[in-house]
Amino acid sequence: MVDKLNKRFVIVTGMSGAGKSTVLRFLEDAQYFCVDNLPVQLISKFAELSFSSDDENRKFALGIDIRSGQSLDELSEILDSIKRRYDYEMIFLDASDETLIKRYKETRRSHPLSVGGRIDEGISRERHAIEFLKNRSDYIIDTTRTLTRELKQQLEKIVVEDRNFRNLYVSVLSFGFKYGIPTDADLVFDVRFMPNPYYEDELRYKTGNEKEVQDYVMSSPVSVEFIDKLVEMMEFLIPNYIKEGKTQLVVAVGCTGGKHRSVTTANALYERLDKMDSIGVNIEHRDIKR
């Protein structure tokens, strides 16, 4: 098997509309030689040519998706054959059905498997057809709540920093209870017990993104202790979520209006979780501008 340190071969696949093209563009910028939608029958030859290249440090990426059609039936055996000879990694891009439908409607494109039919039916057929690729992937990235810049940050951890990413993407979300609890939250924490900057005239119109507000909220030992305990709980939960195959976790932190205490807490949690090599993390402040 060719040494991974000398050659790097990455296969990018996943649900149509989940971000495969964005990933391939990023890899091109990272000096990967990229080929998209190569006929399945030529994949073995492409891998052979890639690893026999005279350039010992060359990096290669291959895009595979549902457009391969009936040839997907041959793909599992081909990937097994390549794996016996070469070391490659597979990145699988996923997103919720609702998100994929929204993206297709916004771009006014047809799903590859829903020509003449409904988008959700095409997505369902595709999800079933490529499930085997998801099961054998090294990295599963859920882009449901991910901005393009955040996706690039996660890819950089994988293909540039070579961090030990383990397929769980954590979204830390601040919100205001007065606007409702996020419907997609997996875990919800109420921080309305913390000191409230709203009642300080000089802080009322600032947010938890500003140091003065952060210092005010964190001046309470209770606030500091809560964040320490929250991080400790997340450090316990995350390995167990990974073990169960969970790929997306939304941690929602709420205060009354979603501008001060929840933003401060979410920022602190994000900074601590982002130091963990085993996960990808992003942050969103839902109600900070309301």
Describe this structure in words.
By secondary structure, the chain is α/β, with parallel strands linked by helices. The protein folds into 2 domains: 158 residues, P-loop containing nucleotide triphosphate hydrolases (Rossmann fold), CATH 3.40.50.300; 117 residues, no CATH class. The protein has 10 helices and 9 strands. It has a 5-stranded parallel beta sheet, sandwiched between helices. A 4-stranded parallel beta sheet has the order 7-8-6-9. Helix 2 links the parallel strand 2 and strand 3. Helix 4 packs across helix 5. It is elongated, with a radius of gyration of 22 Å. The N terminus is likely disordered.
Q: Provide the structure class.
A: alpha/beta
Strand order of the largest sheet: 2-3-1-4-5
Rounded average pLDDT: 88
Helical fraction equals 40-55%
Per DSSP E runs of 2 or more residues, the count of β-strands stands at: 9
Largest sheet: 5 strands, parallel
Instruction: Tell me the series of helices and strands, N- to C-terminal.
Output: EHEHEHEHHHEHEEHHEHE
Name the overall outline.
Answer: elongated
**What's the name of the CATH homologous superfamily of the largest domain?**
P-loop containing nucleotide triphosphate hydrolases
Strand content: 15-25%
Rg is 22 Å
Number of helices: 10
Given this structure, which CATH class of the largest domain is correct? Answer: Alpha Beta
